[in-house]
Give the backbone structure.
Amino acid sequence: MLLAMIWISIHEFVRNQVVLTQHWTDHYASMGLVFPADPVNGAVWGVWALLLAGFIRIITPKFSFMETVFLSWLAGFIMMWVVIGNMGVLPVQILPVAVPWSLFEVFGAVWITRKMAIVSE
């Protein structure tokens, strides 16, 4: 689970703080806000990554690989995007990058979780 959390955290950081940072900062600036990038925000995303990795670990034995990927992606990303979209803070122009990247992110986390579960048995 820890390796899956690290995988998720790295992808979240690179996608949002390196690749898409300008989209986020411009979108927040257009609303008269500053994009939250303080260390405490990073820590909260670390908790989110831990929760997503835990969710993946819990459902992995109950579902097929692709079912686990889909359910984890739905729970981790789709619901988050619906909520932040509803709050008006989701820059929708990031979705063409964020959707496939997040699918790859979850795919990798599920793969790691499954491989580690086999090793620990």
About this structure: Residues 15 and 98 are 8 Å apart (CA to CA). Residues 2-120 form one domain. The first helix runs from residue 2 to 19.
